[in-house]
Design a protein that fits this description.
Layout (H helix, E strand, L loop, with lengths): L2 E7 L5 E7 L4 E4 L6 E4 L1 E3 L5 E3 L4 E3 L2 E6 L1 H13 L5 H13 L7 E6 L4
Antiparallel strand pairs: 1-2, 3-4, 5-6, 7-8, 8-9
Helix pairs in contact: 1-2
């Protein structure tokens, strides 16, 4: 399908745009200099998997909420990756084994770092 600009209007009538489509892009703007840059969030714990839809990006931390099925799917995908250390692979296997579909949602809270 590709990408397109999605426009919305906030309660004050300001137009907000974001790039939408198959490869979503997020950007951040420095309020002082008004310079911006695109960014992507990758989870080292899940083998470099890109994370979408953060609940919050605050004070250098990332927070999101995942359904047990979603988390299990992400763990399964990460375990197929060859980018994991053996120790991390064992830990993720144990975490995945402990997840049941009747669990409450899981909150992922992680510190952000720059490459």
């Amino acid at each position: 399908m590709g990408q397109w600009w999605q426009s919305t209007e906030d309660k004050d009538g300001n137009i907000q745009q974001r790039l939408a489509g198959d490869a979503p892009a997020y950007y951040i703007v420095d309020k002082q200099t008004l310079k911006g840059a695109f960014y992507a969030i990758e989870n080292d714990f899940l083998g470099g998997e890109r994370l979408e839809n953060p609940l919050a990006l605050e004070d250098g931390c990332y927070t999101t909420c995942l359904d047990p099925g979603e988390l299990s799917d992400q763990l399964e995908k990460a375990l197929r990756s060859d980018r994991l250390s053996e120790q991390l692979r064992k830990h993720l296997t144990k975490v995945q084994a402990d997840i049941t579909e009747n669990d409450n949602n899981y909150i992922l809270y992680a510190k952000l770092k720059q490459r």
